[in-house]
Amino acid sequence: VTEFVQDLLLGLLLGGVYALAASGLTLIFGVMRVINLAHGAFLILASFLAYSLWKWVGLDPLIAILLTTPVVFGLGWLTYKLFVRPIRTAPMASTVLLTFGLAMVLEAAMGTVWGNESTAIRPSYADESFTLGSLFLPKSQVFGGLVAVVVLLALGFVLTKTWLGRAIRAAAINPAGAELVGIRVASVAALVFGLGIAAAGAGGAIVGVMYPFLPGSHYAWIARLLAIVVLGGMGSLSGAIIGALMFGIAETMASAYISPAWATAVPYLIVFLVLLVRPQGLLGSRLRQDAVAV
Amino acid sequence: MARSTIIRRLQAVSVTGFLALGLAACGGGDSGSGSDSKEPITIGASLPLTGEFSQPGTAAQQGYQLWADMVNKNGGLLGRDVKLVVKDDASNQNTVVSDYNALISQDKVDLLLGTFSSLLNLPASAVAERNQMVYVEPAGGSPEMFSRGFKYLFFAQQATADKQGKVFAEWLTKLPEDQRPKTAAYPVLDDPFAAPTANGIKKILEAAGIKTVYEQTYAIDTKNFDTIVNGMKGANPDIVVNGAQSEDGIGMLRAMLKANFHPKWLYQTNAPTLGQQYADAVGVENTEGVVFGISHAPEADTPGNKEFVQAYDDKFGGSPPEDAADAYAAGEVLQAAVEAVGSVDDQEKLANWIRDNKVDTILGTLDWNDDGSPNGEFLVGQWQDGKVQFILPESVATTDHIVMGWKPGGGS
After folding, report:
1. N or C, which end of chain B is more exposed by having fewer CB within 10 Å?
2. Chain A residues lying within 8 Å of B251, measured CB to CB
């Protein structure tokens, strides 16, 4: 029983960080219908930024989030203005190809700046754990989970309680209608893209503490994040959170009770099964489909 | 292969394949077939410069480059300059195949050198074999490589993967009863190199009565090792033999620290050979006593080794990673064959020469079985006081002191 509880806790903590990383991806898709394949690369970029701040200034990566997030937000905003906007009305395949290309460019750029080397951020608590009886909770995962909760709550607050959030949702549901009531959909889109990337930026600093990374690590991340977003229902923030927690738990449980060899396969199997029953994902937004119908 | 791996590969293939086609199209035509004696000899290789194996891939590129520089500085190969044509296969099995096809049919290179890791060398060497071109690989020690009856494939290290841990495992079994481990755990990466290495050790330890209490394989995109470590902790082994590549070995060790799981011995493949990167990533104080197999020692008194280490430091700074040394040695093997045969045109002659002869390299003297696998012995390394020492075999050891077990935190 102890082992089961231990694995469950590890799965939940893992899921929390997945949620943080996936939230931006689903936000960008929900509002803009852009599948951002460079999301993982931005995540790793944030890891490298946090690494540099930690290595050269001695800044704790969790505090570094306050710096990396705005920087990555700016990069996201710029990326939108320079690359995504010109092809916004093009078929979805074009944005997929564009963002995949971006991911490769980012990977090469990171390799040039930081080198193709395994990198790890190791603040004093990196390899320590809280112990709870015979259970252990890795500190980095706990802090990561907490930051994920804070960032997700903030994101939720912005989306539901602020004018910007209402504008974003309006632009998502009915762009033409939003324009009519005075929302500049193009500016909102740039902000959303920046916000989505910024969430990856916050996640990147955490991920860098939890796991070693190198420029090529983004492939493993984007594959997971896409699966999580599809599982939760593309465009749904709460869906992504539930999907991420399920994914994290499935991964640890499969590793513990089937075999680690299946740990990365079983979650995809679950995605597959869920989609058979609910093709729109767990909380796939019907509103989106209505909007498309209009 | 795990579903996730397939999905990821499919994603990567679609675009990298497209790019490779583009590169191949651009690359054609700038190099001749090499019959004019003033033309440089072109040597093609595809390396994982990006993606999961970018770390060894980049090191291998450095090794090839240093070798080519050395050859050119000394008057070239058969009096002709050596020109390297290196493509990036993005750590992808499909791309590496199209790369080697393009090197042969479009770039029309005179000679080939291998890529990195058994995973990529398996398909790449098949392309070379089909085109009857000598393929000296700097990595790719999976026994699977040499069971295919290939005639042009040669592995430029001392031993295949299944024998990598042999020297250490046999040493362990000869320890006095009270110091010998009683139980062992084998968390192993699903990889054609890492898995046979761990298996080779397991066979020797089991034969000596050291019981296997945990054995699991994990996929290459595993990020989270906490659950695996939790399982091992429950089995409480005296020794953990981790068949790893790079990032996963680091992740495994860190997860062991987090779980406060400190087995008496820790053996890892590959990751500990990354030198400073490994120490930085796991914390230098946690490396104390970690044991690993390695092919190259910067301190070794092998032919040309001092010059290689110096040249590496001059060009790239620091001590050369093992992977750079292996690539350099692969170049040396090819060079020896070409110089002995006196031409690059008859690939069969080159292959026969390598099969029948010994070659002095910076890894020591290498020689081969009929199937292209080498028949020497790996060195055993151990992290001691934040530095890599070579502890076995005694003839090449850099110290006679062996730290008896893994001591994370540097003390106890």
Report:
1. C
2. 211-212
Chain A residues with CB-CB distance to B52 below 8 A: 216-217, 219-220
Chain B (53-72) residues lying within 8 Å, Cβ to Cβ, of chain A: 53-55, 57-58
Q: State whether the Cα torsion A175-A179-A180-A183 is positive or negative.
A: positive
- Residue A198: enclosing H or E segment and its boundaries? helix A185-210
Do B264 and B412 form a contact (C-beta atoms < 8 A)? no
Instruction: State the pTM of this model.
Output: 0.79
Q: Which residues of B touch A115 (CB under 8 A)?
A: 58
Q: Is B23 on the interface with A (CB under 8 A)?
A: no
Q: Is B137 helix (H, G, I), strand (E, B) or coil?
A: strand
Q: Establish if B251 touches chain A: CB-CB under 8 angstroms.
A: yes
Alpha carbons B117 and B314: distance in angstroms, whole number: 27
Which residues 146-205 of B are in CB contact (within 8 Å) with A? 187, 190
User: With an 8 Å Cβ cutoff, is B317 touching chain A?
Assistant: no
CA B32, CA B46: separation in Å to the nearest integer? Answer: 19
Nearest-angstrom CA–CA distance, B151 and A141: 51
Asked whether the beta carbons of residue A263 and residue B15 sit closer than 8 angstroms, the reply is: no
Nearest residue of chain B to residue A51 (CA atoms): B281
Pairing of strands B183-189, B239-242: parallel
Q: Mutate which of A102, A139, A264, A271 to disrupt the B interface (most B C-beta within 10 Å)?
A: A264
Residues of chain B found within 8 Å of residue A269, distances taken between Cβ atoms:
3
Is B50 part of the contact surface with chain A (CB cutoff 8 Å)?
yes
For B186, the closest chain A residue by CA position comes to: A260
The C-alpha angle with vertex A105 and arms to A120 and B22, in degrees rounded to 5, equals 130
For B395, residues 6+ apart whose C-beta sits below 8 A from its C-beta are: none
* Residue A7 neighbours by CB distance under 10 Å: 20
Q: Cβ neighbours of residue B392 under 8 Å, at least 6 residues apart?
A: B167, B168, B171, B379, B380
Q: 10 Å Cβ neighbour count for A180?
A: 10
The ipTM, to two decimals, is 0.79
For residue A168, give the H/E element and its range: helix A163-173
B281/A261 CB distance under 8 A:
no
pLDDT tens series, chain A, 294 aa: 788 898 899 899 889 889 988 999 988 888 788 899 999 999 999 999 999 999 999 999 988 999 999 999 999 999 999 998 888 778 888 889 999 999 999 999 998 999 887 888 989 888 888 988 888 888 888 888 888 888 888 888 888 899 888 888 888 788 888 889 888 888 888 888 999 999 999 889 888 988 889 898 898 899 899 999 989 888 888 899 999 999 999 999 998 888 888 888 888 888 889 888 888 888 875 544 444 433
Rg (CA), chain B: 21
How buried is A66 (Cβ within 10 angstroms: 0-12 exposed, 13-18 middle, 19+ buried)?
Answer: exposed
- Terminus-to-terminus CA distance in chain B, angstroms? 41
